[in-house]
Amino acid sequence: MHKGKDIILIAILSTVVPIVIAFSQNVSALSRLGTPGIKTSDQEDHRHGRPSPERIYRFNEQVVTVSDFEAEGYILAIGGGGEGIIGQLKGQQVVAIDISKRELEGTPPGPLKIVMDARDLKFLNGAFNTAASFFTLCYIDGADHEEVFEEIFRVLARGGRFLIWDAVFPEREDEKKDVAIIPLLVKLPDKEIATGYGVNWPDKARDLPYYMKLAENAGFKVGASAKKDQWFFLDLKKP
Ligand SMILES: C[S@@+](CC[C@H](N)C(=O)[O-])C[C@H]1O[C@@H](n2cnc3c(N)ncnc32)[C@H](O)[C@@H]1O
After folding, report:
1. Which tens digit of pLDDT belongs to each residue from 105-146?
2. Which residue has a Cα nearest atom 17 of ligand 1?
3. Closest ligand 1 atom to Cα of 100
4. Which atom of ligand 1 is nearest to the CA of 199?
5. Is the CB of 163 under 6 A from ligand 1?
6. Is 130 left (phi over 0), alpha (psi -120 to 50) or beta?
7. Is any atom of ligand 1 closer than 6 Å to the C-beta of 182?
8. 62-237: what CATH class?
9. Is residue 139 within 6 Å of ligand 1 at its C-beta?
């Protein structure tokens, strides 16, 4: 690799990785790399728990436009900590749940913030008309996806919507690159937010058909869907 590229990579690692670490508390997140149970390479920087540059696949910057949407009553934001994009869009209408207290503490004010696991929502059946998940499913282990979809279906009222914006992971081409860094430019109606997420590359492809199948198995009907570059949007409905 050229020296110039090395310098760029080091710059990326020293800027993006700390952001990412701040964002990630769960099983499949980058911060767990270097902890027991996660495979690490010889080149890994064990002092900082950072993956070696050889392991990182960096997505092109994903420009994600999140348009305003109509919603009656409270909106449940799944994994609504961090930048809290749904909270920034819909403010006090949002109930943001996140497994990480620290992530919620760092989220801009507006939503009601509650520490809660998306696999075990503490709300009554049919409590919300709308649920939304912005780049949270990529942080949740694939083995837990079914449970999360079932829980969201349960807490939605009939006719309720579940809106998803998330990353598309094709099958991994380079076995060595098992960590993905996804720089994002999020375009909200009144502002733009530059951020970055980092996750372990999932074992199987996670594309639109993968999420549609999960949704349909949970009982949802697919309303609208769109794929752009390496992210997608899904608008699901509980019949
Ligand atoms: C990429 S980050 C934040 C994205 C966030 N939606 C935003 O708008 O910036 C994903 C979030 O999902 C949270 N998360 C991961 N697993 C979770 C779970 N099982 N239940 C709830 N939140 C979870 C993480 O703590 C993290 O804050």
Report:
1. 999 999 999 999 999 999 999 999 999 999 999 999 999 999
2. 99
3. 25
4. 1
5. no
6. beta
7. no
8. alpha beta
9. yes
pLDDT tens, residue by residue, 12-44: 444 443 334 333 333 333 433 332 222 233 333
CA distance 199 to 26: 10
- Note whether 122 and 153 are within 8 A (CB): no
Place of tokens 């801009």: 108
Parse the chain into domains and list their residue ranges.
3-57, 62-237
Single pTM value for the model = 0.84
How far is ligand 1, taken at its centre, from the CA of residue 6, in Å?
30
Closest residue by Cα to atom 7, ligand 1, is 84
Contact 126, 153 (CB under 8 A): no
C-alpha 4/C-alpha 186 separation (Å) is: 28
